[in-house]
Predict the structure.
Amino acid sequence: MNSKTVYTYRSGQRINLIKSPDKFVARILPQDLGSIGIQNSEQLSSSSSRVICRPEELENLMQQCRAKAPCHHDYESEESGDKYLITDRIFVRFKDPNISFDRVSEFTGRYGLIFLEKYSDRDYLFQLTNATGMNPVKLIVTLTENESLVELSENSLNHQIQQYAFTPPADPICIRLRMRDGCRTGFATPSETFAGGDPENIPDGVANPVRQNQS
């Protein structure tokens, strides 16, 4: 089975990724995928699914799925083998703590982004659009290596639904995350500490207690 190695950045560090030749991730649930004729899928999070297919079908199915919802290749870390399930959202920390609204607006327009959340004076969450012109992995590379306004950027990741047989630690970060989504692992991920929480598993209409406690 052939796979392709690419790279991106996480917490400011370069990491190599392996692209799956027969899987992709979509921001849509399995039952909705079934309605457009895509049957072989599994739920990853409250809003996303992984589709499994033959390698020769991958690009056609992804194109078919994009008419319904955002979808991206399935990646894993080359070093650890851990899944790296990207979404259409990215976290950005600007260098300037006093960056103006106009500079942020210019930035979003230049990269075809939609503003979603502001976590602090310089930490933001953005969503990619068709106007972005590149996938989320390539965008993080571009922002990290070439964008003078950006101090740090990384992908917002899906975290696969799992059950953990342990008692979560009682530290303040974990308590806030348990309030939000059950404290998936008991520890904050890089995105959770970087930008106040990964929004992927926060249901619509539910406030983010991490962000509330920072305000």
In short: Residues 101-111 form the longest helix (11 residues). DSSP finds seven helices and ten strands in the chain. Residues 162-215 have pLDDT under 50 and may be disordered. The radius of gyration is 17 Å.
